Amino acid sequence: MSHKILYASAVALLAVSTNGQVSANEISQHLSTIIIPEPIERIQPKYPIDAAREGREGWTILSFVIDEKGNVSDALVKESSGSEDFDKATLKAVTKWKYQPAFENGKPIQQCVNTVQMDYRMGKNVGTKGVSRRFKKKYEIATQALKDKDYQAVEHQLAKMNARKTMHLSENNYMHILAANYAREIGNDTLQLYHLDRVTLDSGVKSENLKFSVLYQQFYLETTLSKFQSAFATYKQLIKLEEAKPYLAKLKKVMADIDSVISSDKDIVIDAAIDSDYWYADLVRNEFSLTNIEGSLHTLDVRCANKRHVYTVENNNTWRIPTSWMNCSIYVYGEPKTSFNLIEHPVDI
C-alpha cells in the first residue's frame, strides 16, 4: 500500500531541523505564550427557550479562527454537554464576535487556535444544588448495580439518565462520574476519560477532594492514551490544588516521563474513532500519519497558532508541518464509527 508524505506548504521542505522534536517543556512554553484574543465586540448567546422551559442546563466549547480582518470564521463545536440547541446558540453568537487581529511583521495574520466555553445555567440557586428525586432513584439503582457487577442494569439506568431532556449541571456531573466509574470497572480507558472530560468542575463539583479525584484520573488516563497536550493542561490544574501536594513528586516524575517519550525516536500511536462527525487531537510533534483506517475519512483540518490548512485524506498519508507553526491541533472528519490510528513520528535529524 502506498505511503505518501504531504507537505503543509513549500516552506515545509525546510521543516526538518534540530527543532523538529517537541519536548514537554516546549509544550509548556507554547501553551503559556498563546496570544489570548481581546474582543472588540462580544455578543452573549441567548438562552434557548425550550431549554429554559425545561430547566435544562449545559455547556459548549467552540474552536474558531480569527481572520486577518478580526472576524470569526470556521467555528466548530469541540466539546459539549450534548444539547444541540446550546451548541447552535453558541455558534450563532460567537460567529458575530469582532476582534483586533494579530499582527506579524506589521501585517495582520490569522489566529487559528482559539477556544471559548459557554455555560448555560438557570441561576445561582438553580441547577448546581442537589438533584431531583427521580434522578436520585435512577442513580441509586445504577450505583447498587455497579457494586453488584450487574453491568446490564448499569447501562440501562445510565441510558435512562442520559435520555432525560431536563438535567441540571449537578445531575450531569453525577451521571458522568458514575459512567466513568463503570468504564473503569470494565477496563475501558477511552470511555472513562470521555465521561470525566464532561464533568463540569467549575460549577457543580463542590468537594475539593472530588475535584482532585477527577483531575487525577484524567491526568493518568491522558498519559496512558498518549494525549500529552491534554495531560499537561490537567497537570497545571492539579498542582494548584491543596490535595495534590502529597503527590507533586509523583506528578513531576510522570511529566518527565512524558518529556522522554516525546523526545524519543519512537512513534507515538493513538487509537482514534469518529463518534458522529469528527475526531480531534492536539499534536506534540510536527510529522504525523493517519493509518489503519476502518471506514471512511474524507477531510483533515490542521489548525496551528497562526496557520490553517485543509486536506483530503487517504490511508497512510503523512503530513509534515513547519516547526514554526507550533501549537497545532487536527480535526479529522469522516463517517461515524470510523476507526483509525494517529501516528506521530519522530523527525529524523
From TrEMBL:
Q: Does the keyword Protein transport apply?
A: yes
Q: Where is the TonB C-terminal domain?
A: 32-129
Q: What is the lineage of its organism?
A: Bacteria, Pseudomonadati, Pseudomonadota, Gammaproteobacteria, Alteromonadales
Concerning PROSITE patterns, the annotation shows:
TONB_CTD (PS52015)
**Record's protein name:** TonB domain protein
Q: Name one Pfam family in it.
A: TonB_C
Q: Which residues form the signal peptide?
A: 1-24
Query: Main localization of the protein?
Result: membrane
Sorted alphabetically, the Gene Ontology BP terms of this entry are:
protein transport; transmembrane transport
Please tell me one Gene Ontology term that the record gives under cellular component.
plasma membrane
* Native source species: Colwellia psychrerythraea (strain 34H / ATCC BAA-681) (Vibrio psychroerythus)
- What are the entry keywords? Cell inner membrane, Cell membrane, Membrane, Protein transport, Signal, Transmembrane, Transmembrane helix, Transport
Q: Which SUPFAM superfamilies match?
A: TolA/TonB C-terminal domain (SSF74653)
Q: Which NCBIfam families match?
A: tonB_Cterm
Protein's cellular compartments? Cell inner membrane
Q: Which PANTHER family match?
A: PROTEIN TONB, PROTEIN TONB-RELATED
Q: Which family does it belong to?
A: Belongs to the TonB family.
Per UniProt, what is the membrane topology?
Single-pass membrane protein
